[in-house]
Amino acid sequence: MSETNKLNRRRVVADLLADRGDLLVVTGLGSPTYDCAAAGDHPLNFYLWGAMGSSLTVGLGLALAQPKRRVLVLTGDGEILMGLGAIATVAVKKPHNLAIGVIDNEHYGETGMQRTHTGSGVDLAGIATMSGFAKAVTVRETAGLGDAFTMLRSAPGPVLAVFKVAAEKDPLVLPTWDGPALKLRFREALLGTKTAA
Amino acid sequence: MSAPTLETSRREQGVAERGRYQDWPDQIFQKLQEADIRHVAYVPDAGHSRLIRLCHDAAHMKTTVLTTEEEGIGLIAGAWLGGERGVLLMQSSGVGNCINTLSLAKVCGFPLLMLVTMRGEWGEINPWQVPMGQITADNLRLAGATVYEVREPADAAPAVEAAGRIAFNGGLTAAVLLSQRMLGTKLFKD
Predict the structure, then answer these.
(1) Yes or no, beta carbons of A61 and B78 under 8 Å apart
(2) Would the CB atoms of B72 and A50 count as touching at under 8 Å?
(3) How many structural domains are present in chain A?
(4) Taking each helix axis from N to C terminus, what angle separates B153-170 and B6-20, rounded to the nearest 10 degrees?
(5) The domain spanning residue A86 has which CATH number?
(6) H/E element holding B170?
(7) Which of A71, B15, B23, B156 could form a disulfide with A63 if both were Cys (CB 3.0 to 4.6 A apart)?
(8) What is the fold of B39-181?
(9) Domain residues of chain B, as ranges?
(10) Domain range holding A7?
(11) Minimum-distance CB partner of A89 among B71, B81, B86
């Protein structure tokens, strides 16, 4: 439970995205979007600022359209809980290039730190495993981070890692929320300027 | 026997016309191919069953079954980010599930083509379908969609073509509603 969660979310995300290469990243609304921006803005980051529960499905559509590129969804426990059925949909589609990192602080960080179900024992990695993911793990200690990063970056998907992080408020690092701008720069960086518009 | 009146001959002509367009799902499928749709996401409906089979059989189309309709909005936005066009099929009850997620398509200008088979709209015998069926078109319009309400089989494919053009050329949400008059009524009989 949260009292014992020690991982620092900003450090986890910064280390995961270090040397990201040509990784495509989709973030769930709230703190994962800020964590990702804090690690360094990038045209191949697509930040969700709303549509709660949609990060997995945006990542799935992208991964199926771009089977040669690695796609990483970074989201929070509250966001993924709102679209829990999407874990089943991803599991059934079996995208080999899709990885999901859940930054799990067991709280709704945007709305006053109310508890989410993961703080009451709901096991997201267990749900992913039993749904048919290739692999899913929960990481509580820094010692487990390296293997989880390797899995998210290169293991055959779909894979999911839950990072149990401390429920702390980090300084806000806000990327743009201009939706058309985020969409266009992502498509330009991925597809080239001719097909982007 | 008296000669057919003008009215009966018109009626017969109408019946013949309807018969000619009874393969409207095939005609919609043709329009989806012409629009280069590569991803078909759906929560099934009996009214879409033929179109769904055609899409499953098309080698160049991916098909994804959703647990709830709003998953399709994210999926098709992601496909567009990756350079692919998609379409979302659902029953009118599913439109209610989509409302907040439609903001993703609207705020980013993602093209979103939705084909919606109606329940609770014409000859429905299950009253539980009526509340959502009666507010489907208004809800879509309130959420920013351009809505094409189709009552005649002959209008189905042209409406899909028009809606697809609006969606993909304009980065807009366009929904084609297919009336229960075309689909028939679920009778709850073996």
Answers:
(1) yes
(2) no
(3) 1
(4) 50
(5) 3.40.50.970
(6) helix B153-170
(7) A71
(8) Rossmann fold (3.40.50)
(9) 39-181
(10) 2-196
(11) B71
pLDDT of residue A31 exceeding 50: yes
Q: Which residues of chain B neighbour A183 with C-beta distances below 8 Å?
A: 80-81, 108-110
- Closest Cα of chain B to A53: distance in Å? 8
The pTM of this model reads 0.93
Spatial separation of the C-alpha atoms in residues A114 and A124, rounded to whole Å: 18
Contacts of A66 in chain B (CB under 8 A): 82-83
Residue B77 near chain A (CB below 8 Å): yes
Q: What is the pLDDT tens value at each position of chain B, 190 positions in all?
A: 455 566 666 666 656 566 677 899 999 999 999 999 999 999 999 999 999 999 999 999 999 999 999 999 999 999 999 999 999 999 999 999 999 999 999 999 999 999 999 999 998 999 999 999 999 999 999 999 999 999 999 999 999 999 999 999 999 999 999 999 998 777 777 7
- The reply to whether residue A63 touches residue B78, judged by beta carbons under 8 angstroms, is yes
| B71 contacts in chain A (CB < 8 Å) | 54, 57, 83, 85-86, 89
The answer to whether A89 contacts B84, with C-beta atoms less than 8 Å apart, is no
Query: What number of C-beta contacts closer than 8 Å exist between A and B?
Result: 118
